[in-house]
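note to self — DONT lose this again. spent like an hour looking for the file last time. sequence + predicted structure for the chain T wanted, 115 res
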Amino acid sequence: MIQVKPDGTVTSHIICMDIPKVDAVFVGTGDLFAALLLAWTHHPKDLKAACEKTVSVMHHVIKRTITYANEMAGPGKRPSPAQLELRMVQSKADIENPAIVVEAKVLQKYSNLAG
C-alpha cells in the first residue's frame, strides 16, 4: 500500500496478515472492510495499526454474526442468508474500540520525499 503524507513523504508498505476463514457467505463484508480501513487509516495514521483494527473488527462482527445465525438456524442446519446479515448494531463497541485479535507483520517499508 502506498501512503502520501501531508509533508509530501511517500511511504510504501508490504503487510502480511494471517486471517482465519469462516465457512459461510456474508453480504456486506467488502463494504464494511473498505469503510473500516478508510476510517482507521485516518486515525491513527499508522497502516499496520489500521490493518490490525480493520481485520480485528471484521473478526468480531463475523464471529458474532455466525454465532447468532447458528443459534437461529438450530442444530445441524445451515443458516439462511437472512440469519447471516452482519450484526452491526450489536457490534458497535467492537467497531469503536476493537480488541486486536489478528496482528499484522510489516514485511517491507520504504519512505522517500516526493519531489
